[in-house]
Amino acid sequence: MAKKNQKMVEEINSSSSNNKIIYFLIGLLFLFNIFNFLKISNVEKKLAKNPNPAQQQQPQAPKEIKINEVKKLFNKDFIHFGDASRKLLFVEISDPSCPFCHIAGGLNPQLASQVGDRFKYQSDGGPYIPPVSEIKKLVDQGKASFAFLYSNGHGNGLLAASALYCAYEKGKFWEVHDKLMTNEGYNLINEQVRNDKSKISDLVNFLANEIDSNFLTKCLESGKYEKNLNRDQQLSPSLGFQGTPHFLVNTQMFQGAYSYSDMKPIVDKYLQ
What we know:
Number of helices: 12
Shape: globular
CATH topology of the largest domain: Glutaredoxin
Strand order of the largest sheet: 1-3-2-4-5
CATH architecture of the largest domain: 3-Layer(aba) Sandwich
Radius of gyration: 31 Å
Structural class: alpha+beta
Number of domains: 2
Number of strands: 5
CATH superfamily of the largest domain: Glutaredoxin
Order of helices and strands: HHEEHHHEHHHHHHEEH
């Protein structure tokens, strides 16, 4: 009986020793996993801050625009109203698929109200005065000139911008512009057309009351203004463009959907 008890004790001690080794190995494995987790987390944080270090750019000084660069936009190859001889020159770099371009256009209060109180139209009790409608008033009064350039700001506006060039050819720019810049137009451009040339008929039908459908269909299908659109995009950076919308009041830049109230002091200076 004593020998049997001694054997049991030896087996228990052996088992206990094996368990200690197992627990020790498990502990090492646990620590190793924690180390790797922390290491990966630190790498992910660095990548989040700097997705591609090779493309990381140094902060740029504000672009200095020369008035002669602005005046070059007021010729037959660009969408423009008025000429370069006026004291007050406006430039808008825009994308019909860009939400803030719609807000700045003044015809999409539904979208403006979704963004927040800051962009709620003054006509709806908010503080925001859409600049494009105010600019157009000055142009119509002969007090200012206006040039429009396209640049990709949201990804779906190329066909709609082509329609604007086609419309300009027929003297229908503002009619087509104002239709496209409604909430209905925004949804059509971003949810239905999405630069798909097979959906040209959808865009044409939407604009049927504003411009001749046969002309617009042929104009869009031919890609007649693709070179103009490419040129606009290549030219935009020289005008300080970083994102849509982008406005110039003579040489003063307004990068974003500024309220007209922010532009007005500069405007008034040139109207004196």
